[in-house]
Amino acid sequence: MADSYISGEIATGAQRQFISRNSHAAKITIGSSNINSVQLGVEGGESSHCGDSDYEFPNYEEKFANDVAEKPYIAQDFLNSTKFNLVVPQLESSLRGQSFHSNERVIPFE
Questions:
Q1: Contact 83, 107 (CB under 8 A)
Q2: How many structural domains compose the chain?
Q3: Strands 17-21 vs 84-89: parallel, antiparallel or unpaired
Q4: Structure confidence at residue 88 (pLDDT)
Q5: Does one domain contain both 76 and 99?
Q6: Residue ranges of the chain with pLDDT lower than 50?
Q7: Which end of the chain is more exposed for a tag (fewer CB within 10 A), N or C?
Q8: Cα torsion 68, 69, 72, 76: sign
Q9: pTM of the model
Q10: Rounded to an integer, what distance in angstroms lies between the CA atom of residue 98 and that of residue 82?
Q11: Do 50 and 82 belong to one domain?
């Protein structure tokens, strides 16, 4: 899960692996059977631990995602619904929580 805003709780359930990056959640509960859980720049995630009596497997949390380069994507033009643009997000650093891509390049299809 990446670049998401979840107003409620996320329960990962019985997934073997779970990774989230640059997201926000009210709370993230890692399931007891998750073997590998990684959270990069996530608000509301669990703290890192190496496994103890309360957790079967470890969890890794990094407060900030150092460098993030999102993939370009196609989006409908806001002013003219019959036109489309290629949106190219720029490299961002030290991200935490959902990003809003304030410095993206928009290339119109002509």
A1: no
A2: 2
A3: unpaired
A4: 92
A5: yes
A6: none
A7: C
A8: positive
A9: 0.64
A10: 29
A11: no
Placement of tokens 């891509």 in the chain:
101
The predicted structure's pLDDT at residue 55? 52
Nearest 5°: the CA angle 59, 21, 14 is 50
Among all chains, which residue has been given the structure tokens 């959902």? 98
Domain co-membership, 59 together with 9:
yes
CA distance 66 to 40: 9
Rg (CA), the chain: 17
Give the chain as a 3 state SS string: CECCEEEEEEECCCCCEEEEECCEEEEEECCCCCCEEEEECCECCCCCECCECCECCCEEEECCEEEECCCCEEEECCCCCCCEEEEEECCEEEECCCCCCCCEEEEECC
The label of the residue with tokens 């290629």 reads 86
Compute the distance between CA of residue 12 and CA of residue 37 in angstroms, rounded to an integer: 9
pLDDT attached to residue 108: 93
Question: Across-strand partners of 5?
Answer: 24
Full residue range of the structural domain in which residue 77 is found: 67-108
